[in-house]
Design brief:
The protein is an all-alpha fold and about 400 residues long.
Length: about 400
């Protein structure tokens, strides 16, 4: 049974680890993200070590029979501690979380050390990747080993289920609430594995066997672990989806601003930032869409500044009257008027036809409130949508070096 379910769980764990791996360097100061990545990695290793081909390979390479047992179960104990670290940082202040995390990690290392010592006292004679527990069920040292592991495992899963339910009620994010409840469900299902393993210890004391319950134990363990991993994946995938959607929006905004940028660049090419002068070591950063979009917005703002001295109040009044007659109002009206002002200002600068000082005015959208970076981008996009789609004129040669 485990050789059927473990590979499926291994795939889920690997998927989760790869999803988080890309963000770990950017969030290296976030202990919760690092701990969650460790949960997926340790979970994947625990399944990998327990698969029969890998079990036999490790026996042959490391020269110690059944060493996969403490390796896999040590990973399980470590991931239980890491899960508590994640929940602690999500639900507590940083100072409290650091203190509690050290306790959980310390307890995990202590249990792992105890497991290694007790495993060293066993006298394994042959590999038993399928029926290891049944084979050693009557060994006193293995009874102590199994008791320590199952106790730690059960306590960890109970604390996990309880903490997830409590934190899910407090979380404001829907993906986190759903994910934590799935984790709690998975932790509850794994208690079936704990019950069978406790039964193995008791049965060994009475010289009986629970061989018919082995499939049930592995099913509860793998299904519960899979649900737990899926639960942790829900907020992770939600964050990744939002990140992709935001990046797609940035690309759309970048290309949506192109007509407005070209309008300014054709008359004032000096607005383009000299990226070719950037240190080659830093040039890669400037290829990111977030930096490119920010650059484009800054260059457009510079273009607006260049033509401010050519904004004629008469152009603004005529444009407002025209667009009001078309039924425009509010921000759409100010964006349409601003587009007309930009075209008229560019044309006036090309002929150096400045209006009289008393005729100078501001852009119609100058008073538009923008509180977030993307609000400013949206304001520029509104203006760009009112520009005619036409090829930009070549930049004036005499202004290229300005």
């Amino acid at each position: 049974m485990k050789d059927l379910l473990h590979p499926i769980s291994l795939v889920v764990a690997t998927l989760g680890f790869l999803c988080l791996l890309r963000d770990v360097p950017a969030r290296r100061r976030d202990p919760a993200s690092t701990a969650l990545a460790a949960v997926f990695l340790l979970s994947g290793l625990s399944f990998l070590f327990s698969i029969t081909p890998m079990w036999n390979y490790l026996d042959r390479v490391l020269g110690t029979v059944n060493l996969s047992v403490p390796l896999a179960q040590g990973c399980v104990v470590a991931l239980l501690a890491c899960q508590q670290v994640v929940l602690t940082y999500w639900g507590s202040s940083p100072d409290v979380a650091r203190r509690r995390s050290r306790r959980w990690l310390g307890a995990g290392f202590a249990v792992i050390a105890g497991l290694l010592v007790l495993f060293a006292l066993l006298t394994p004679s042959a590999p038993h990747p399928i029926d290891f527990t049944l084979y050693y069920a009557h060994d006193d040292w293995y009874a102590a080993y199994l008791t320590l592991y199952v106790t730690a495992y059960t306590i960890g899963e109970l604390f996990l289920a309880r903490a997830c339910w409590r934190l899910a009620r407090r979380s404001k994010r829907e993906s986190v609430r759903v994910g934590l409840r799935i984790v709690a469900l998975g932790a509850t299902v794994t208690l079936g594995y704990s019950a069978v393993r406790i039964g193995n210890v008791i049965a060994g004391a009475f010289d009986t066997s629970l061989a018919e319950w082995e499939s049930f134990a592995w099913t509860c363990g793998d299904v519960g672990a899979m649900l737990t991993l899926i639960g942790w994946l829900v907020p992770t995938i939600s964050d990744q989806t939002q990140s992709v959607q935001y990046r797609i929006r940035q690309y759309r905004c970048y290309y949506g601003l192109r007509p407005l940028w070209l309008a300014f660049y054709s008359e004032a090419p000096e607005i383009e930032l000299p990226i070719d002068r950037v240190d080659p070591a830093q040039r890669r950063r400037f290829r990111r869409i977030s930096i490119r979009l920010y650059r484009r917005a800054v260059e457009i703002r510079d273009g607006r500044f260049v033509i401010r001295r050519y904004l004629d109040a008469a152009v603004r009044e005529a444009s407002e009257a025209h667009h009001r007659a078309r039924g425009l109002h509010g921000q759409e009206l100010s964006a349409a008027v601003t587009a007309d002002q930009i075209l008229a200002g560019i044309a006036a600068r090309a002929t150096d036809a400045r209006p009289e000082p008393e005729q100078l005015t501001e852009f119609a959208d100058a008073e538009r409130q923008t509180t977030r970076p993307m609000d400013d981008i949206d304001a520029l996009l509104d203006v760009a949508r009112h520009l005619p789609r036409q090829p930009a004129r070549a930049p004036h040669p005499e202004r290229v070096s300005a």
